[in-house]
Amino acid sequence: xxxxxxxxxxxxxxxxxxxxxxxxxxxxxxxxxxxxxxxxxxxxxxxxxxxxxxxxxxxxxxxxxxxxxxxxxxxxxxxxxxxxxxxxxxxxxxxxxxxxxxxxxxxxxxxxxxxxxxxxx
Length: 121
Hints:
Order of helices and strands: HHHHH
Structural class: mainly alpha
Largest sheet: none
Radius of gyration: 15 Å
Strand content: under 5%
Low-confidence stretches: none
Helix content: 55-70%
Shape: globular
């Protein structure tokens, strides 16, 4: 599936990529730096786009298929599934957690939402 990104989000992601690439250190440090770059990005007015731009920028820095890319992709997939289940439950649909396909992550999660909230202050 190919996502269509707004020009504003592409610019923010490019800046996050540059920031991540310039940051020496762990994947967590790169994520924090990229988040710091996008958290108040003037071109992205939607917080979710700012968050996604930061993660996308780090994923570009890591390179598709790398361990860092896969760690981020796994965590985002988990967040997406949980969010979908919450939305379904709020809409009045029955959510059967035992039959869901949510499994333990293959990699140790970074805690992206926690990091985002820390960066936001």
